[in-house]
Model the fold of this input.
Amino acid sequence: MQRLIIHNYLTTYASVVYVITMNKSIEIVTDRILALMERGEIPWARPWRGDAYAPRNAVSDRSYSGINAFLLTMANYSNNRFVTFKQALELGT
Done:
């Protein structure tokens, strides 16, 4: 019985943490989009510089897609090559 109560508590706690994390992520993305729009930029408009400037993984050379491509493009870095945290650790950077 105690094991079931603890399991239910932990499951509920994990669900609450997940919802809070997702809400915070959505809030961060929304804030970035609104900041760009306030500067007169349309963040979802495709830049006319072509796919050569699309965000790519520096190790695998694969293009990012979906929300990752959207967020990395919105960040407007001068370099379009990125690595994951794990890849950075493996590269020793």
Notes: The chain has two domains: 1-43, 46-93. The first helix runs from residue 2 to 38. The chain is about 60% helix and 5% strand.
